[in-house]
Amino acid sequence: MNLIDIQQKASQLAAERDKAYGQVVEQFTILNALEKEVAQLKARGKLSDSDTVILKQRLAEIDSAQRNLVEMKKGVLEGRVRELADYQAMFDATPQKLIEQLPDSLPFVLFPVRIETHFHSVGDTHELWVRVYPDEITTFTHEKDLTADEIESGETYWRQVWATRTETDEAGKQLRTTLWNGLANRFGENRAAWVARQTQPTNWSAQWRTLPELILKPQNTPKPQPWTQAPHTRLMPNQFVVMAFSGVRKVLETVGSPIPDYLVMGPDPLQMESSFGRDADNKLVYSKEMAWLFDFDEALAVGMAIKMTLPSPWFQRGFDRLVVLGVRFSTDAVQNQQLLEELVQNHNYSAEGISILPQGTPTNNTEKATAGPSASINRQQEVEENTPYFSPVDDFYQQSDGQRFAEALGVSNESVSFVPNAGWNDVREALAMNNALWPATWGLFLNDLLKPLVSRSRQTLVRQFFTEFVTGRGGLPAIRVGNQPYGLLVTSDFNSWQFTDAELGTDKDFWVKLLAILQQLQSQWETLRPQVAFAGKEGSNPENLMNMLGLQASSVVFHSRKAVTDSYVWNYLNFRALTPQTVGLWGRLQRAKEQQFTALGFNAATDFLLEKLIFQTATDELNGPVIDADPRTPLSETALIQPFNGTDNYIDWLLKSDLQTIRNGQFLDANNQPVAPPKALLYQLLHRAYLEEFGQRIADWLVDQRFLQDLPVEGQLQNMDGQQDITKADYFQLDAAKLRLSQTAMPVGEFIRALIPKPGEPYNGPTEMLPLMGVIDALRTLRGLPTARLERLFAEHLDLCSYRLDAWQTGLFARRLYNLQHTEKNEYLRKGTYLGAYGWVENLRPNTTKTGFPQDQYPAPLQDSKNKTIYEDAANGGHIQTPSLRHATTAALLRNAYLSHGDDNAQFAVNLSSERVRLALSYLDGIRNGQELAALLGYQFERGLHDRGLLLNQYIYVLRDRFPLAAKQLTPVPDNAPQEVVEARNVINGYDLLDYARAHPTLQGIASLPADGTTEKQAILDELNRLTDTLDAIADLSLSESVFQAVHGNYDRAGGMMQAISEGKMPATPEIVDTPRSGTSITHRVAVCLQTDGVGDQHPAWSGPASPRSKVNPFVNYWLGERLPQAASIQFQYQAGAVDDILSLAQFTLQPLDLVLMTGSELGALSSEIERWLTYQIRQNFNISDGQSITFDFHKAESNGVSFAALLPLLRSLKKIITEARPLHALDFFPQTQSYLEGVANPSGYQDLATCKTDLEAATAELNTRALNLKTAADQLKAEITAARTNQLTSVASGTLHAVRKALLAIADYGWSDALPISVDATSLPIADDLLAQAQGMVSVIQKQLATVDFAGFEALNPDQQLDRCRDVARRVYGQSFSWIPRFQFRNQSQLDDALEHSKEMLSGEPELVIENWLQSVARVRPEMENVETLALHHDLYQDLPFELTPWQLPWVSGEKWVGETFAEAQRNQERISIVVHQAPADMTLPQAGWLLDEWTELIPTDQETTGIAFHYNRPNASPPQAILLAVPPVLTGKWTWDELVGILYDTLERAKRRAVEPDMLTTTGYFQILPAVLNDFSTGGLSTIFTKGSTLLKN
């Protein structure tokens, strides 16, 4: 087939595939809708007859839909098999031939792939097996369609955002951030952005606050589930070609099978039943589509593996380079454009994301910075404002990185406009630095040092090429996909490069000369390549490793070297008296220079300044500032250059100052006082460049206007022999009027400055000044950049002037790419690109150390049916079985460290045997008891000597004297404590002893020890070895624990144990010694359900009106009243003077909720709020004055009553429940794995939250009114106290005091115990002062509390957030101990009906007895359940009916027993939840309320455990290249050729190696005489052309 036929057929097959898959998705949608309807019907509980009929119909429809779905899936799989066969049949021509049908007017985009290789030999057949894996960047995972939940969440988000239009700016911003965080937390940041974009109202705009309504976007049918597509790639080539190279020669080439257009890279969620499984031998099997990922033969069939036959000698020798290359022919340029746009969208809204990667972003973790984007990405702002990150512009110098990225890939700018950081300007800034510094670097070099070798016209061409296409960072930005950075590299084959006539134009000589120069430079760079450091370099050594790790993207150290002129050297030699030797030296020096320049292509016979300079070999490091004032100040990614006058930096100074000021370097501070000019190297060059450009542009204009014939070469010495020389500096002062430029006399330099337009305005002056305007624009770009970015730009520019040959070559490629994609008017053509993929490995050699073992030598379960030979590597480290995967990860790391360093570092030889671990743990216990490690080691050593014989005890004292332990502190110790608990006061310092023994293994040098060779000495040494082993066991455990914590991200604890031991602190218990257990998890919950219907805010058995707290929690108040005796039965005795009486609570206005909340832990001495409240009420009700004492006896009661003291345990239990227990919600009645109801807006089932908000707002207003009333009364009291003291009165009017007390009582009703008045009737001034202070304090506290009450944006919150807001407000109004209980609706009513109906069936005996036994057992180990037991016991004492507890089990299964009583094996691996309910509701449809009293999970151990295995795996070292190549043809002949593409790839790899040539390598070459093109002079005028001081970069 020809190319057009292939593309048409491929499009047809893709359409058929998409149609078939769409039908499966549609059927899934139908099935899901039916299952959802059935679930809703079942959730109703008992169904009516009509609902039962509907349920049966839907179940039948589900059965039919499932059968249809199975057939559809089968059809899809069979269709893909047919599609692959038809697809592969299309490619009867090889890629080498098909590529010639592609016009070379478009570039190739080549994506990286990963390669794995295997030399395979069977008998005399030798093959190289090659596997190819797509890189992550070509993988599609994003799904455009939304689920119903996503649609609802997105639309709700926009409604809630719109609802914030009435808020203040700050409040609205905070609310919108909360809304966005909720959406992002639910779907992920990037998916949330997609959901929001797809559901954004059609009338949304920047003026959304003024919209009268939102017009929601119509949505397509929701997809059935969040994940409906397998991860896949549609960017693979149609065939891969594997090429093997020996040196530069291609020796072998093999073409693989055609690759499916849709290559699956993971399980298909709609085909999960066939994606994974196990066969009869319990071996893993997988679907046909995924098989290529695991099976080489399957990969071979789909073109993702290739077998290359190896003749001799290649199967013994291997290859220097193996290249895999493929081209995609099945899609044309327009389709490729669409694919790339879809790929960008895929990554932009997938979980990992994509972004332009700003320069300076660390791509590895260091001590000072972590890898990741350096610029924050605010997707919330992007979504809400709907403003692209950039707008495309035609001005090449002003284009953003996103625009350059889009146009290079041939895609629309719109497809990239919302990629994070697409508005970044890294390339633009690099071009600006090139423009700004050109006059002082390359401009001076070409114009002054090489004049007349380089004409003005050639200088202009070089400048244009350099400032447009030559940058140190490339002409395209880097990107990030997930956590992987990628470079975008424009490339071609430089060795085959040819210009077209259109490219040459009228400047053929220039471009031919430039190409020749770059080719000559490449020859020199190639000779330097052997010096380059790289991984795997033959004879690698530590120095090579350090050089490789030390490579930087640009130079970081700056040196200078000096040069003098020939005349200076000759005069110097002449001054020192010429001798035959010095004359000979002079001649040799001149001949050497002439030979160097001739070899470099210069005409040595021509008179030019560079030829007259002699450079010294010695260099001086430039230690001064590079960018800012102080070189010690760290460069910053945010801070700008320090201003010299408080506002302007030196770049601002260049833009704002007149020429005379700039020439003189005059800086004035904010007080108009002179300050020293900056010393920064960047300033020096920018200053020079600015003045040079002014002078050169004026000089050029004078020549063009024929005022001068040509610019003469300025002499090395000016104004000698009475001759007046004119320099560029003099041109500034020429009279503009005399030059016919101005009507008034003024220096021409100032006239030109006046023509400089403001930013954004056009320039309307002489065209000769356009380059100057470019410098001005460049300075404007650079002026606001932070110092770190300026430093990178500056270093890159200097590199371009010295050693960055690759950048100049890449500039040629970038120029051609730009011309291919743009018209002559710089209009973007958007023609698309061709697609392909590449990868390579180098130094591919067969492994001759492995040994083959037949399958029959392995255990039967490990044998493979294909009977392949298994190879074993002698260097393999084996495997380690561990208790868990976490342990396996730790073991793998420790084992790897041992294998890598074990011979040299015994610290990695870890032994964690049970005995050593127990020994180490015993020492950790001792450290926790306050002992030092040195003391514990000493105890062991002394005890060991003692146990070995009494004769050894004498040596303990010898060693104590030699290694004493000074105690740091003395602490009291309990009697009969063991020795290890008593702090060491006199014991051997075991650590010092071991430290001494390292250098003195036989303890030589210590007097009074036994002689060597004696039994006693050997016993001491044996004990010393045991001590060494103990310390090693502690070290092994500490190291292992540190690694265990580190590999799982717990860095805070990674070094915790070692640090604690070394510092004598309490070490944490090591987790690595814990063996995790698995089993069946049983969730137990205990709840109280409250009666919510027919309940008033006043309990009928308690007197008085409802209180504020009983009104807001009426069903809590009612439940408490039912648990307590009647108010008349709760009694106590009080005495006041002659009165001695027994009272009941019925004599007071009190509700059960108030009583329980006021109850304290004890009674007596007015320690509880209820005592203080009763005291006040008794004084008030029975007219007992403040001066008369009242005593209580809470143990007294009448025969028919209950004493308050006897009731106290019950009251305490009730208070603990209502203040500490969590309110119930609907999800508490679901198992753990079902506790989130997808698609349900209010899964917790909360009811009447809006009504609650209204009630709380009213309560807040009422409490605020009462506080204002109290303030009014307090103010009146304050005035009267002042008047009383003025009139020398001793008391205050009782009416005023009464008003204050009444106002305080009104607040105390809300639960503010401190508002209970401190007196009842006293009127003295001290009492009045105290009462005033109490009132003022209460007003302050309440107003402060109510000031934080905020219901703003309540409607925009989800129900859980609304509940939290209501509960918070309730605590602020009714006191911090008050817990408001919401109502909710069950979500699984039918399940709960079943559980309640069959509750008794699950029990083995009488329910009351079973529950009582269960409660007694759990109360012993659960503090909350102990409280429930107390409650039940006292409840039964005072109530006729027992404390009811009803067990529910979800899901209820007929015949199963209650898991709270027994566990059956049939229940293993089945999720069960036990809910024991007090006061189980009879009607599940009514609103509910209550508390969750306790919750715990019980693990029923399994008889099998999943363990972990760490094994030594020598994985393939090859990684995909981190670069996307944009290949342009080296020769435009009208069509692409295969050899061209192979040559491009080969040359790119070679150029990448030459990129690592460092500047100091050039010092041994002839280019030391001419590079870098950055020179400055010693003169003070600033414009002399005698450049005798250069700035070069000698070390990266």
What does this structure look like?
Among the domains are: 148-200, no CATH class; 656-715 and 728-777, no CATH class; 851-881, no CATH class; 913-967 and 978-1041, no CATH class; 1082-1087 and 1387-1509, no CATH class; 1089-1383, no CATH class. 43% of the residues lie in helices and 13% in strands. The strands form ten sheets. Strands 1, 2, 4, 5, 9, 10, 11, 12, 13, 18 and 34 form an eleven-stranded mixed β-sheet that branches. It has a five-stranded mixed β-sheet with strand order 27-32-22-31-30. The protein is globular and about 135 Å long. Mean pLDDT is 87; it is low at 967-984 and 1580-1596. Residues 1260-1287 form a coiled coil. Residues 358-377 are annotated as: Disordered. Keywords: Coiled coil.
Could you tell me the radius of gyration in angstroms?
A: 44 Å
Range of helix content: 40-55%
So what's the overall shape?
globular
**Percent of residues in beta strands:** 5-15%
Assembly status:
single chain
> What would the average pLDDT be, to the nearest integer?
87
Number of DSSP strands? 36
Q: Could you describe the largest sheet, including whether it forms a barrel?
A: 11 strands, mixed
End-to-end Cα distance, whole Å, is: 54 Å
Keywords: Coiled coil
Region (Disordered): 358-377
Coiled coil: 1260-1287
Write the layout of secondary structure elements.
Blueprint: H1 3-43, H2 49-90, H3 95-98, E1 108-122, E2 125-134, H4 148-163, H5 169-187, H6 189-199, E3 232-233, E4 239-246, E5 249-255, E6 263-264, H7 272-275, E7 276-278, E8 284-286, H8 296-301, E9 305-309, H9 314-317, E10 319-328, H10 333-349, E11 354-357, H11 379-385, H12 401-409, H13 426-437, H14 442-449, H15 456-469, E12 478-481, E13 484-491, H16 501-504, H17 508-528, H18 542-549, E14 557-565, H19 566-575, H20 580-599, E15 613-621, H21 650-656, H22 659-664, E16 667-668, E17 674-675, H23 681-704, H24 728-731, H25 748-755, H26 770-782, H27 787-800, H28 805-821, E18 834-844, E19 851-853, E20 870-872, E21 879-882, H29 885-901, H30 914-928, H31 933-948, H32 953-962, H33 990-999, H34 1015-1046, H35 1051-1054, H36 1056-1063, E22 1079-1089, H37 1108-1112, H38 1114-1123, E23 1130-1136, E24 1139-1144, H39 1152-1158, H40 1169-1181, E25 1191-1193, E26 1202-1203, H41 1204-1220, E27 1222-1223, E28 1246-1247, H42 1249-1286, H43 1294-1308, H44 1325-1347, H45 1359-1374, E29 1383-1384, H46 1389-1397, H47 1407-1419, H48 1423-1438, E30 1446-1450, E31 1472-1478, E32 1490-1501, ...
Parallel strand pairs: 1-18, 13-34, 22-31, 23-26
Antiparallel strand pairs: 1-2, 1-34, 2-9, 3-6, 4-5, 4-10, 7-8, 10-18, 11-12, 12-13, 14-15, 14-36, 16-17, 19-20, 21-33, 22-32, 23-24, 23-25, 27-32, 28-29, 30-31, 35-36
